[in-house]
Write a structure and sequence with these properties.
By secondary structure, this protein is of the alpha+beta class. It has 7 helices and 7 strands. The strands form 2 sheets. Strands 2-3-4-1-5 form a 5-stranded mixed beta sheet. A two-stranded antiparallel sheet has the order 6-7. The protein is extended and about 65 Å long.
Length: 197
């Protein structure tokens, strides 16, 4: 990405270099999240949803409608030894419905976070919003034991102050494929661990 000296110098209210790095990091993080859940397994790591569709992860069908019984079935379909650090991974449309579920004494199963930075809980388990999931599926498990992701090399940002020689006639950085950082996920490998009953 190219930022002119004038832009950098005129940005007195905002550190423009840090702003660009932060925005770039957010986009890369979003893409990494997408392939963790939806990766096709050929040119990307195998995503959790892709592995489930291939039959490599056990699932429970919730049946018609989202009710507490279906959610309890999803939780208890996973062997107890995996419950300790498990979370519910849920599309936002299902979160909307989960927030409305109450017990027989009219108490919500959904509990707001007890501290800043902590997730809300449902039936005692943390709920993580993942909008890369199909909105008719809810996942429950310990992703640290299910999905391993390894970065082959750390990404770095190089800043050149040499604007006279750093750019070619098209405005691209000489000798650098400017789109290569956007393909960084090709340098990531993953291992999906099937949950055994």
């Amino acid at each position: 990405m190219y930022a002119s000296d004038e832009l950098v110098e005129d940005s007195t209210e905002v550190d423009i270099i840090q702003f660009i790095i932060q925005m770039f990091s957010e986009v890369l993080g979003e893409e990494e999240d997408r392939v963790i859940w939806r990766g096709n397994g050929t040119t990307q790591p195998t995503g959790v949803v892709t592995a489930r569709a291939a039959g490599n992860i056990g699932t429970t069908t919730a049946g018609a409608g989202l009710g507490i019984e279906a959610l309890i079935d999803v939780i208890y379909a996973l062997p107890g030894k995996y419950h300790r650090n498990s979370k519910l991974w849920v599309h936002r449309h299902n979160i909307r419905d989960m927030r409305k579920l109450k017990d027989s004494q009219n108490r919500y199963y959904w509990q707001e976070p007890v501290a800043v930075g902590q997730p809300a809980t449902f039936y005692g388990y943390p709920v993580i919003e993942v909008n890369y999931l199909p909105d008719d599926e809810i996942y429950f498990g310990d992703m640290k034991k299910t999905y391993w992701l390894g970065d082959r090399q750390k990404m770095t940002v190089k800043i050149s102050q040499d604007t006279e020689t750093a750019l070619n006639s098209e405005g691209s950085i000489k000798g650098v494929n400017c789109w290569k950082p956007l393909n960084f996920l090709r340098a990531i490998s993953s291992q999906l661990m099937p949950v055994m009953a």
